[in-house]
Design a protein that fits this description.
With 788 residues, this protein is of the alpha+beta class. 32% of the residues lie in helices and 24% in strands. It has 21 helices and 33 strands. It has a 9-stranded antiparallel sheet, covered by helices on one side. A hairpin with a 2-residue loop joins strand 22 and strand 23. Helix 19 packs parallel to helix 21 and helix 20 packs antiparallel against helix 21. The protein is globular, with a radius of gyration of 26 Å. The two termini are 49 Å apart.
Amino acid sequence: MVAPVTGLFFLMAVIAQTIASFSPPASSKIVVSSGMLNFLHRLPGIALCSLFTLFLTAQPTAKHNLEFDHLAARWDEAMPLGNGMLGALVWQKKDRLRLSLDRADLWDERKALDLSKFSFRWVEEQVLKKDYKPVQQLGDWPYDNMPYPTKLPAAALQFNLKDLGTVVSNTLNIATALNTVTFQSGTVFRSYIHATRQAGYFEFENLPAAVTRLLIPELEIHNYNSGKSAAENDNSHSGEGLEKLGYPKGTVTTGTNSIRYHQPTYQQHYFEVLVHWTKTENRLTGAWTISNDQAAVLPESGSKANQQSHRQWWARFWGRSTVQLPDAAIEKQYYLELYKLGAVSRKGAPAITLQAVWTADNGSLPPWKGDFHNDLNTQLSYWPAYTGNHLEEAATFTDWLWKIRAKNLQYTRQYFEVDGLNVPGVVTLNGDPMGGWIQYSLSPTVGAWCAQHFYWQWKYSMDDQFLKTRAYPYIHDAAVYLEKITRLQQGTRKLPLSSSPEYNDNAITAWFRNWTNYDLALAKFLFTAAAETATAMHRPSEAGRWKQTLAELPAYSVNETGLTVAPGQDMESSHRHFSPYMAIYPLALLDVNRPGDRAIVEKSLRHIQAKGTRAWCGYSFSWMASLYARAYQADSALRQLQIFASNFCSSNSFHLNGDQKGGQYSGFTYRPFTLEGNFAFAQGVQELLLQSRQGYAAVFPAIPASWKNIRFTNLRIEGAFLVSGQMENGTVTSIKIVAEKGGRALFKLPFSKCRIRSQKNMQLKETGNGFAELDGKAGGMVVLGSAN
């Protein structure tokens, strides 16, 4: 049974809970499960008295939850739980309820790639000699043939379901990050991972007395050394068995109410899993944790701060922004993507890898070794964090990049033989290059794409300290490197070798002697950002240096197909990676509002359409939504989002790369799970509602024809302005803009002439054609409507 909380009770609860960051619209229902209430009261980290605050500050409602009448039968369809460092997947394997346990920093970092044996200069020489096989043997072979470096799974916590009866409901409440499973017998299982403590919790209640006596947690450990050879699979390497890692056998120590698993890995490294539980009458309650290179210890529980921390964290997270759409399926997928963002990103935890804290639990290496792919995957994973007003989550990427900066500087000096900063395209947790298809894994422009996230973190926050200590030095070092690696020939800069992910895969023909539009767009972005950050740091001579370097770059290669791969090379067939179109999005160097750019953008999109989607992966569709949104082709953008959600996701919303409906849209029908497509989907939705463009922001820029009623609150634009908007019956009725830091911003509004409904410390000047310039103090606000 559930109890709706509305009206006066709702208002009283809001007043009573002062930490509530926003109030849901009047039409919302606040639904509280009695079982959940009891569980949250009992388990460490959540207090009964604060439950209503959690719900009132959480935008998601029951319609956004994952709900099934069964447990998943596969790990990649499981209920996902996480806190950035720890993760769990809740599913059923044979007759066991299974929690696949994971920790983000469990890695085998043995080196397979020997970078001392070759350099970028030598690769160029081999390309010129047309003798590329030695390059593939040194640069590509180790990744393809060695099981390490790789992300590691931890273990699996299991419970015998034999005497519990059939599952009647299985729900993941994304507002509270709580999974609840109800059995026909009346038994209820609940599990969550604490948002701020390194512990997961589980509970069975209403157990039959006979079952309570017999039910105990079991720990299944992975087979890290059986002597078996790897199974052949697709190029994701997900068929290679964990046994190839060859670790010593781990030890499991079982006590009366505890299990400790100690697993040596490589050299002197190890990890531990600790499970502890108690039984009282018809209830079994327990906790688990995973440690890395130290003994596992479960944190103390019971303090007032601990009781409040979990609910407060998720309440703050969901209170950052809200989106309401007339398309229920798209809205649900959007909130599931934001839930994942909250579950996999946390200060102090590593950046988001391909699977983050949900490493494959199938006895094999995770798809593409669960690594950091900086030629697309890590960058796309953070796209929605900026517009979505989740800068704390976005900072986990720049924090990690800064942490590995010293190794990246060393890598740049060793491989590229110049000063400055570049970043490997495929890299370990601690920053070591992994190789594999070196056109991309050792690409000359990866650092420029990583630098965009330092630029975005600064621009969306306008944090002067971040500019001085992180954004400026990082972007400066990346620009120094790219200036030094390029060659000035007859007044034009040239890159020794250029590539475009993943055109021609790892063949010698994947290298181009002229700039690809991918590398060129990144170079144009980087030198532009370097000039802007130098100006902000009051270094005019340095800004002038980068502007001059920018002027030395050639124009984009363009013909009747729009942007080409490279001069003389059109995009000849369907292709999964939109690398030639980076200038449209995410770099936003081309603007459809400029006539010259409009022709390039529209020709490019027509050409992509003409080549079809047969060689696309799931992330291609979610990225394509943003490309269409930038061209104001809203209905086409929406269609990409619909196809992604319906064909390329598992039942739990995980992006599986391949078309899961038999190849309806893509020839890829495999199912390796990676996260970047999920997060690019969320940004595709946000791009329909609000866009930060070069020098201005567009509000309601690309609304599908079928969307008549829309509401969003506190989405963020560059310049640190928060924007809220509402559309009713196809008409924009109000736009609220708040200046977080103060300053000026130019807006393209969805009315030809606007009317100020309310304002405080904010001045507005209309400049024509729907543009308005705002100038406000910190905290300044204006509410606008149409004057027509």
